[in-house]
Automatic annotation (TrEMBL):
This is Amino acid/amide ABC transporter membrane protein 1, HAAT family. InterPro entries: ABC_transp_permease, BCAA_transport_permease. It comes from the Bacteria. One of its GO terms (molecular function) is transmembrane transporter activity. The chain crosses the membrane at residues 17-41, 61-81, 93-117, 137-158, 187-206, 264-285. GO terms for cellular component: plasma membrane. Its main location: membrane. Keywords: Amino-acid transport, Cell membrane, Membrane, Transmembrane, Transmembrane helix, Transport. The lineage of its organism: Bacteria, Pseudomonadati, Pseudomonadota, Alphaproteobacteria, Rhodobacterales.
Length: 290
């Protein structure tokens, strides 16, 4: 019985870390991995989704609909930002870093001034389940399922729909796409909006588990960038293996030595991957298939 409880605890911690990495990096993977835009405002899109989710849930909207509202608002804000700022900075990565960093500072300080240093959150739903002498949140199990569903949904969107085909063609060969009559500016705007909406979805999903503060997006930033860098440019090939490997490292080190060593393990892992596999896991997997 004790062995079973230990195995369940290890699997639970791995699944929780895997879900966090996948959900937090999905929006960044679309914007950075596919579009090549280094979006330092990723955490603020997550914060936007979380704040909207908390506000609409407290207003009486069911939590699933509140989460969707958070994702929708973050997506609309992302499309507006792309049209006003990012559109002029494609193929200028250093400028996009500075611009999105500035947006990040403005958003954080603006929320702090307007809404204050904290915001009333929403309680974690579904309660918990006891295994052995420990209790585990059922909502965390829902997040694990949501991470798998999110990967499957993104694969379907980009490989089984017309929008996905047009988006991949536009991002890989924009001149050819324009020659074939594709409105590439519209596709870029929708893709950036999708990445922002995915970030907002991450904030909405994790809103019941976190304290609502203007800087809450920073909690997701390191893990998001580490996962995307380790996964490589192809988010569908590299994201899941990268998240699984990093989740195993983080869960193992956290269980043995504490949370600080789990974070250090993530940073060491990305340094090793960048040194050995500059193209990330996706480039390695594609080479192995040939």
């Amino acid at each position: 019985m004790e062995l079973a409880a230990t195995l369940f605890s290890t699997a639970y911690q791995f699944g929780d870390a895997f879900a966090f990495l996948v959900i937090s990096c999905a929006g960044l993977a679309v914007i950075f991995g596919m579009m090549g835009v280094i979006n330092l405002a990723h955490g603020e899109f997550i914060m936007c989704g979380a704040y909207v989710t908390a506000a609409t849930a407290r207003a009486g909207l069911p939590l699933p609909l509140a989460i969707l509202c958070g994702a929708l608002v973050a997506g609309l804000v992302g499309m507006a930002l792309e049209r006003a700022v990012i559109r002029h900075l494609y193929h200028r990565p250093l400028d996009s870093i500075i611009a999105t960093w500035g947006v990040s500072l403005i958003a954080t300080q603006g929320v702090l001034i307007v809404l204050g240093s904290t915001m009333q959150g929403v309680g974690t739903p579904l309660g918990g389940v006891a295994v052995g002498d420990r209790s585990y949140s059922l909502y965390r199990l829902v997040l694990m399922g949501a991470a798998v569903a999110l990967l499957a949904g993104l694969y379907w969107l980009f490989y089984r729909t017309r929008f996905g085909v047009v988006a991949r063609a536009t991002i890989e060969r924009p001149q050819m796409a324009r020659a074939l009559g594709v409105d590439t500016r519209r596709v870029y705007g929708l893709t950036f909006g999708l990445g922002a909406a995915l970030a907002g979805l991450a904030g909405g999903l994790y809103a019941p588990t976190m304290t609502m503060v203007p800087t809450m997006g920073a909690t997701f930033m390191v893990e998001s960038f580490v996962t995307v860098v380790v996964g490589g440019a192809d988010i569908f090939v590299g994201a899941a293996p990268a998240a699984a490997i990093l989740a195993a490292i983080r869960a193992g080190l956290t269980a043995w030595y504490g949370q600080l060593f789990g974070q250090i393990g993530l940073l060491v892992a990305v340094i090793v991957v960048i040194r050995i596999l500059p193209g990330g896991l996706s480039a390695f997997i594609k080479r192995a298939r040939r």
